[in-house]
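Subject: complex prediction, re-run

Hi both,

The earlier run crashed halfway through, so I resubmitted it with identical inputs.
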Amino acid sequence: MKNTLSAAVILIGNELLSGSIQDKNLAHIAKELEVRGIRVRETRIIPDIENEIVDAITHLRNKFDYVFTTGGIGPTHDDITSDSIAAAFGVENVVQRHVFKQIENRFKEKGIPFTKAAQRMAYAPQGANIIETKHSIIPGYQIENVFVMAGVPSIMRLMLEGVIECLETGLQIHNIAIHANVGEGEIAAELETVQLRYPDIDIGSYPQDKNSEFSDYRVIFVFKGTDLSELEQARNSVFRACQKHGFEAIKV
Amino acid sequence: MKNTLSAAVILIGNELLSGSIQDKNLAHIAKELEVRGIRVRETRIIPDIENEIVDAITHLRNKFDYVFTTGGIGPTHDDITSDSIAAAFGVENVVQRHVFKQIENRFKEKGIPFTKAAQRMAYAPQGANIIETKHSIIPGYQIENVFVMAGVPSIMRLMLEGVIECLETGLQIHNIAIHANVGEGEIAAELETVQLRYPDIDIGSYPQDKNSEFSDYRVIFVFKGTDLSELEQARNSVFRACQKHGFEAIKV
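This time it finished cleanly. Structure:
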């Protein structure tokens, strides 16, 4: 029987750690994977430092089915992801002739000088499987269970389309929810009872800020799992508990 | 001489990993710390699973000066942060009498039942230093170099105000930038030369999406460090390189 698969995401870049740029890639990757039965179980945000990248890659690729990285594959001095991934696998970071030609031609068409720095974008670790991407001349690549993508969200999304074609899929994971005007503490006992009755489902309880972009209600209860009828049953139990206490609630 | 201090942030919660909720805490924490000379060097997003929390806490608190956690300290079954942090320190998670009384009184005023579940919010690991927070009845706490805060952004921000009072400060870190209409590859060689000339400064190069919220320019160059006059010199060198090539650029 098919099961769900596990994944880690590594977001590489000083700018994400310092708060000067807000990550937009994790949520997109997680949602795209989830409908394919692959669940993100850990995410790390790490700086552009080789041994940090090597450590994260080595640890996470042994722990999870897949690892996805974003960032650090451009042409500047702080783009060291491919060098670091090569180091993690004990191979050289080598020029990919076909990619080199492709970028060179595109730069020529556009009249942009194909500098030594820009040529670094044509490198990938020896043995990597280059993943051609429609609409993007810079490809992502795969090496064993690690998939390497750009940090710029529009480019990352193009690469992910190609990456997804290379993945085994698991049992699809579904999400259903209740939005309710309830203090978490007032419904916590019933929530726990339902969680114990349906151990294969993950029930999460997320209190919302007053000006939340997600809901006008005070709390969101999320029911996540692979069996839709179990999810419905669990949600109905919590919904009835809200009604019993007189709390306003809607199913979403 | 004062130096900068290092920190890690652990964002705890399944909802962040699955992309159903977008983190808003990291950027705020990182910026508040940076002006106090404390730099976030790693962030992990992990699920509500005790041994994952224990592993992350144990590893990161030995590696960095400070660790800050958000999430998992509410009243529901998936709020296991305090239990897990107690386990990481090999102590019990115990009721904090003063906090208990405080929450009990507030619930009484508001006419909300102070359930057994809600009472869990008055627990913290034995030996923790409770950090009283203006405007929030639920306090954050400190245990050795680990600071524990709520996940809801409005509450986290209140707690952080109290937490900051407990921190040693380092040498303030400054950020200045150039926004430029340049292909990264065309300026990469000059950028690297400047980086080599000023090894104490971090120079980052961040290409922007067309509809970026950060800039109308194609690339942002960020100069980060503790010595403002060095930062200015490095920025001027890159600015002149942009001008030399005829690229439109502004200092920010």
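The domain at 5-165 of chain B is CATH 3.40.980.10 (Molybdenum Cofactor Biosythetic Enzyme; Chain A).

- K.
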